[in-house]
Design brief:
Arc Repressor Mutant, subunit A, 2 domains, Fic-like fold, mainly alpha, two-stranded parallel ribbon, globular, 3-stranded antiparallel sheet, about 375 residues
Length: about 375
Amino acid sequence: MMEAIQIEKFKAGQWIRQYQYKSFSPVFINRQWLINDPDLQTLLAEASRYLGELNAFSYQIPDIDFFIRMHIAKEAVTSSRIEGTQTNMEEAFLKENDIQPEKRDDWQEVQNYIQAMNSAIERLQTLPLSNRLIRETHKTLLASVRGEHRQPGEFRKSQNWIGGASIQDAVFIPPQQDEVPELMSDLEKFLNNDQIKIPELLRIAIAHYQFETIHPFLDGNGRVGRLLITLHLVSNKILERPALYLSDFFERNKTLYYDNLMGVRLKNDMRQWLKFFLVGVIKTAKSSIFTFQSIIALKDLCDKDIVRKLGRRAHKGLALMDWLYCKPLTTAAEVSEWLNVSQPTANTLIRYFCNLNILQEMTGYKRNRIFVFRRYLEIFKS
């Protein structure tokens, strides 16, 4: 292995003159990192503690996968919004026919993100976090959407750039396409090299920076790079279930996010990027813990109301609650199918739920009505 990198002496790479522009060629990262900074160690300890608290919910909450689906949906909406889509949480749970035609491309990008995350988590059972998995995830992300003609599932074979109307006025120009395969191979080795002794939170922070700097795809790099964080935490058992997503933190601090990434490239300031990343983990983990606590309180309240008010229909009511925890927008037809009951029975249950202020009708129509579990949705939107 190459000599160790001291974070204080880290050199991020070099700017290489190309025709009419300079591209940035990053150094390889598959090396031992020496990180003894007290501030980073303090943040790392705090981040690890909150991740431990968050992870505990994976064991405490029955049927936690219902709620994880909501986390993934929120992540899909937020991560896609960073890239310019306009889909909101409510729309993410609607069927395509219920989406306005002009918003269907945005809606499909969110659905692709949900599918990409779910597929990648499942693939981690049999496949390491690798370039193969990264390319598969990218292919799912770009299927049948605006980037479908931009080599989905393939590393780029041409130059790309970030910001600016053209490459001449770009904010950042990643390495030349010929460098991408070797750089991505180095990144893959770094993610899976158990000879490198480094806390996994710092490993994925460095890897995320490197991925965004390589920018290996023509489109979808931001979404894949953010997915990479959660996949790494799950792959390394830092989290039992995918309950932590940094997209919301990155979106709220978008300028700082891009400035800190550029700070590494321009000033070799990896330390500041790692601090920013760890603060993001801390804030996001705290938020996720509060979300789970709020869900538990709401579930307890709703279950008690259902048992008290629905009598012999309570068991069907509790089954409907399970459905709403993973799909908080629904119709009478869906309830009928999910519970295997008649349409009149489904309508009766929905009417009970509206009376209990669990569901609200959101269309104002007499037919084809859609009902929303708004109190639950608001927990994830707040």
